DNA sequence: AGGACACCTAGCCATATAGACAGGTAACAG
DNA sequence: CTGTTACCTGTCTATATGGCTAGGTGTCCT
């Protein structure tokens, strides 16, 4: 959909600089993506008081992120995945960026902690995950420089979460399909299986099937719990 | 419904200044309360670029808000009610402040839109309600000055929500009791009525009773919807 | 003393749901 | 061609839930 920049193009920009070993005089160039102005201004303010870091652009939509990465080739993308109504789209975006612009490191600055999203994000090449509510002002600047050097940064508790997730018997990061998400949303709005079935033109059996798969993937046993966990996972 | 602020009280403090007609040279003194650093810095940055507005302090807990109001006597308190794990506490705080420091206007800067909270807040003397995700940078500064002048500021959609709420047959701002909240939390964790009953030592009938009251108060018809709306209302 | 309220209980009944089974289709990649 | 994946359908049963009506207790306020 947007095949703008190929690696060679980027090599033209910084041909002589190995990743993570840039000159100390060149600043870490950051792109901030969040739909919330307050957060953007806040992150910008924090980062710009950090020596060696500069915010080069801001973005508020997934498309704008791609454009901005293409245009500015930032060293670090600080992003909240909740840029549209579909977190999956954000995860895809991360994968796309790590593939096409490997020198741009991605650090997620999330509103909520979601095992589901964290694990999926790590898989797709994201190297930082911090929680807005947990970060201290100075941590943010340090974290940006750390991920630029290719290291992984995780907010407190997140590392444990991932470890725990890896150790659990349940399949990690199992993908939630579009159809499942559709059913889930209707379910959260209080529709019965029958009502969901008729509104998406399938049988009640199918609805139950999807809900059962969702329950397994999220580790829930009742729809109330399902909605709760899905919300925590940022699916709703 | 709001007979809190007596003119005399105000006259004692600034005897010569009619409301909304303060000297253009005195700045609007703002206290920012939010548990999130990024938000605090962001709001501060935005407000300080607004002429006539100055941020005098920040707070991150309910207690700190009271102390800071006491110490600085700000003109406007910009607050996210989600300062602890209990939103109700935040609402009580608002009432306390409007009672004890009537010259301090309160503007809520919320993460999520909750009819429940909005209505309750208005009752307790809050005069502004904006959504973090919706505000534009310049709106925030204007809103602060507007609430200082004693006017009510509501983010787009919120006014309609309140109007709709007032027009609905359902009782608005009905209080959710502690017991109901307790049941709700267990419900959201996927426990059946029977399990909830045994874990709080009541009968299943009682659990159903509480859940039914909750459903009525929040306008839900299924537990999945109940959990969804309760989450949106900041109860979970 | 009377009223308002949180809280608890009981029983009824239709319907919804969880959880398990066994299977079919289409698209797509190795 | 074969395996994988998303998606869809069906049948079965025990249990959970929603919606209702009709009570009880104690506490606190007026």
Provide structural commentary.
The structure is a homodimer of 236-residue chains. Chain A is an alpha/beta fold and 236 residues long. Helices cover 50% and strands 12% of the residues of chain A. Chain A has 11 helices and 6 strands. Chain A has helices at 7-13, 37-48, 62-72, 87-100, 115-123, 137-148, 158-167, 178-188, 193-199, 204-218, 223-232, and strands at residues 28-33, 53-59, 76-79, 105-110, 128-131, 153-154. A 6-stranded parallel sheet of chain A has the order 2-1-3-4-5-6, with helices on both faces. In chain A, helix 8 (178-188) crosses helix 10, helix 9 (193-199) packs across helix 10 (204-218) and helix 10 (204-218) packs across helix 11 (223-232). The A-B interface holds A 35-43, 45-46, 111, 132-133, 135-137, 140, 187-192, 220-228, 231, 236 and B 35-46, 111, 132-133, 135-137, 140, 187-192, 220-228, 231, 236. The first copy, chain A, binds a DNA duplex (30 and 30 nucleotides) through helix 8 and helix 10.
């Amino acid at each position: 959909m947007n095949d703008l920049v190929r690696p060679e193009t980027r090599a033209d920009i910084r041909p002589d600089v190995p990743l993570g070993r840039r000159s100390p005089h060149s600043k870490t160039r950051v792109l901030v993506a969040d739909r919330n102005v307050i957060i953007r201004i806040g992150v910008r303010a924090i980062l710009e008081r950090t020596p060696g870091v500069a915010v080069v652009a801001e973005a508020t939509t997934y498309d704008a992120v791609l454009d901005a990465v293409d245009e500015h080739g930032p060293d670090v993308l600080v992003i909240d995945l909740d840029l549209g109504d579909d977190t999956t789209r954000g995860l895809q975006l991360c994968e796309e960026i790590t593939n096409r612009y490997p020198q741009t490191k991605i650090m997620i600055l999330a509103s909520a902690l979601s095992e589901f999203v964290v694990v999926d994000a790590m898989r797709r090449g994201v190297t930082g995950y911090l929680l807005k509510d947990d970060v201290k002002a100075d941590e943010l600047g340090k974290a940006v420089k750390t991920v630029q050097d290719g290291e992984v940064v995780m907010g407190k508790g997140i590392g444990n979460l991932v470890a725990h997730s890896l150790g659990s018997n349940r399949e990690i990061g199992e993908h939630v399909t579009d159809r499942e998400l559709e059913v889930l949303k209707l379910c959260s709005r209080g529709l019965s299986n029958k009502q969901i079935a008729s509104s998406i033109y399938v049988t009640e059996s199918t609805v139950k099937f999807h809900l059962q798969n969702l329950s397994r993937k999220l580790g829930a046993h009742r729809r109330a719990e399902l909605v709760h966990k899905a919300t925590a996972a940022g699916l709703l």
